[in-house]
Amino acid sequence: MPTAPNRSFTPLYYQIEQDLLRQIDKGELKPGDQLPSEAQISRQYGVSRITARRALENLVQQGIVYSRQGIGSFVAYARIREMSGFRSFSEDITAKGYRPSSRVVELSLEEPEADVARRLQLPEGGKIYRLHRIRQMDDQPVADEVAYLPAHLYPGLDQYDFSKASLYEVFRTRYGINPTWADAEIEATFAAPDLAQRLGLQPGDAVLVALRQTYSATFEVIELVRSVYCGSRFTFFTGRQFIG
Amino acid sequence: MPTAPNRSFTPLYYQIEQDLLRQIDKGELKPGDQLPSEAQISRQYGVSRITARRALENLVQQGIVYSRQGIGSFVAYARIREMSGFRSFSEDITAKGYRPSSRVVELSLEEPEADVARRLQLPEGGKIYRLHRIRQMDDQPVADEVAYLPAHLYPGLDQYDFSKASLYEVFRTRYGINPTWADAEIEATFAAPDLAQRLGLQPGDAVLVALRQTYSATFEVIELVRSVYCGSRFTFFTGRQFIG
DNA sequence: GTATTTTACTTGTCATGACAATATAATATG
DNA sequence: CATATTATATTGTCATGACAAGTAAAATAC
């Protein structure tokens, strides 16, 4: 459900949606408050009811607002927390107010293991870039991360220095690929000696292992990432998920 | 984004949506296949284009289908995996093909800690039911779980035997409360001796700790659950999340 | 004062219609 | 044969309109 339409102009429904979002973010509309009705929005913005409705519906789908037939729409009490562990590591850490940085252990072009090839839906004989980094916040290692990237999507990727560059930014600007969806499987395990050494831990310490797949808007698997996080220094936040 | 409208009849768009979903589930429409166009669906089902479009849009919002302007709609390659750790434990474990069961350690009515009261958005002086269970699959303990439940939402909850009853079923049938949204924060830590004993682990083993909030359709916090999972026997699957 | 009915407001569903934007295929031209 | 133009298909946005369903408030009846 893209909230930012990918077009050459900004649709009316989107402008109204952003306006309402702004009012919620600024506290002009508080949790529990009723939003203007579809008819009121229609009159206020000079649009049809279907356009007003579309703006409200989008906020409902994002879990920001809820509506009840015959009564109205209301701002959700529980604010959505920023998810972490799903987007760009750089973006995650910056959003938490820390300074992200990375140390590249290795970036190489290679043959994938069978499981990796399967998960990435690689064509026969397809290669991957394997990017191994230690991720840090405020210079303290928090994650050991290996990204498996379909080589056919990213020719020339090895020319970049991912100590400095953000992988997601390179996806977007160089290759025109927008990370749009992600899912993850998460387990706890204990740190092996080599991993413990890289993360400044004791062997046997508890670590969080997340295997995340990232998809483009057309559901191409654009990245498989295995991250091992210090149990004590990183909390994984899922986004709000619909379970009904 | 409710996919099952809560009404006394089934809307046309929903029937079409379910029909398309059935074709995808049965393999009649395979990953990568193009779906019928809006105009074709319109003719085939004898509905307006807006109704056809609504059905397709709902599948897009669920991450099952994607569409491209001027080209068409397509079945996503990557199938959505069943999430786990977000819904009813019973439902999760049953979906994995195991037999869920629970041993109640304790169910009591008590004053909440400040953090619990805040997260549950309890009224001043509000009490909680604290339900402590060991969750099992095929009789093997996999999680130590404490649920904090706002007492005002569930009067008389302590009359139920949650060794046998599903909490979510009781929510729905007895109290008319539908779990609709959830989010979780997840960490890894190590098992303390008492916990290790309850889960059949060694002290110091890695465990996954998930703190999950569950919301009704009107975003009331209906449950706060702290689950500690064996690192080796439980993998937490997030659903597909929109990150764009 | 209470119960019932009516009214008003609001969201939900669906129709018809039009045009814009995007993309590809077919056709025309040099 | 290559390039440009036109046609076609499809999704995206927006309008007007109507009626259903749900809910609460106001008015009326007893």
UniProtKB/TrEMBL annotation, chains A, B:
A Gene Ontology annotation in the biological process aspect, one of them, is: negative regulation of DNA-templated transcription
Q: Which InterPro entries match?
A: Bact_HTH_transcr_reg (IPR050679), Chorismate_lyase_/UTRA_dom_sf (IPR028978), Tscrpt_reg_HTH_GntR (IPR000524), UTRA (IPR011663), WH-like_DNA-bd_sf (IPR036388), WH_DNA-bd_sf (IPR036390)
Question: Any keyword DNA-binding?
Answer: yes
**Domain HTH gntR-type, residue spans:** 10-78
Q: Keywords on this record?
A: DNA-binding, Transcription, Transcription regulation
Q: Does the keyword Transcription apply?
A: yes
Q: Which GO terms describe its molecular function?
A: DNA binding; DNA-binding transcription factor activity
Q: What is this protein called?
A: Transcriptional regulator, GntR family
